[in-house]
Amino acid sequence: MSKSISIAKYGLGDVVRHRFYAFRGVVFDIDPE
């Protein structure tokens, strides 16, 4: 199995908004999978 490097769309502390529903969140943890 080869490992590939991927680039995250969001970083720690980024405020994200849901596409369909009216709520926001903050990225506080990243799963490396």
Kindly describe this structure.
- With 33 residues, the chain is mostly beta strands.
- It has no helices and two strands.
- It has strands at residues 15-17, 24-26.
- The chain has a two-stranded antiparallel sheet with strand order 1-2.
- A hairpin with a 6-residue loop joins β1 and β2 (24-26).
- The chain is elongated and about 35 Å long.
- The protein starts with 14 loop residues before the first strand and ends in a 7-residue tail after the last strand.
- The relative contact order is 0.31.
**Strands side by side in the biggest sheet:** 1-2
According to DSSP, the number of beta strands is 2
Mean pLDDT: 81
- In sequence order, what are the helices and strands, one letter per element? EE
**Count, helices:** 0
Percent of residues in helices comes to: under 10%
Bulk shape: elongated
Largest sheet: 2 strands, antiparallel
Give the terminus-to-terminus CA distance: 14 Å
List unreliable stretches of 5+ residues.
none
